[in-house]
Amino acid sequence: MPNSNNFGFMDRYDQRVGRLAGQAERYVYTDPESCLFKLRLMVETMARTLIEMQAPHLVDSDLSTMLRSLERSQMLSRAHADQMHAIRRDGNSAVHGETTPGPTAMRRLHDAHRLSGWYCRIVKRGAKVELHAFEPPPRQSLDAKKAAEWKKGEALESTIEKQRQQTREALLLFSETEDTNAIAKSLVDELKGWDEIAIEAGEPLIDAEFVALVMAMDIEKLLEHPRFGVPSKEAHARAEAQFNAVREDLESKEKSFRMQRQELARGED
Fold it and tell me: What pTM did the predictor assign?
């Protein structure tokens, strides 16, 4: 088999991951479901390798658990986590037999390419990985109908990505473009300044810990704070209930997305 144009460089860092990516690339037009299956296996292999470095006791966990652990340890950035979760979700749909339009597979292949350079730098510390721009694999020209269907699929994928981004940012205090470390330092300095003013004026001190918890939007810790006095078990239950409500809403949206994709995939056949 010919080497992959987009993933051939990975052979020097992780041959198994590079091979799965190359196989996915070859399937992207002819068998989108197999492409997504290979990409999901690629991401799972990457996650397992990273977990062995960070939290080996979780090496036999499911992919979602491993990704959450990598996020908490900050080995996995928010952007990379989003790309991995997107591949996981769409790969799961393909495994369960849902038909997939070509543009979905192409979008996830592009995500995998973005992940590949970062991953190689992680597994080979100090490696200078030069990641070239992603190039869609060549294919025969499409007739007018298939070209129109492909264009519809691309538009749908853009809509899905935009809605996921909006949903994610709605749950966050800071946007992805903001420097949270710098903001945190500024807030701490500001709180200290207000405390000094309060001391001079003989006023009660500002509860800096409480403010920090609010700003961190850590629901569980906030409920456990002495000001609320909620027992740890109950705080956890409340936080879990809010998380489940958000998850159910997201799952409902994802179901709608999958139905639209299947309709497009049937139109491509």
Answer: 0.66
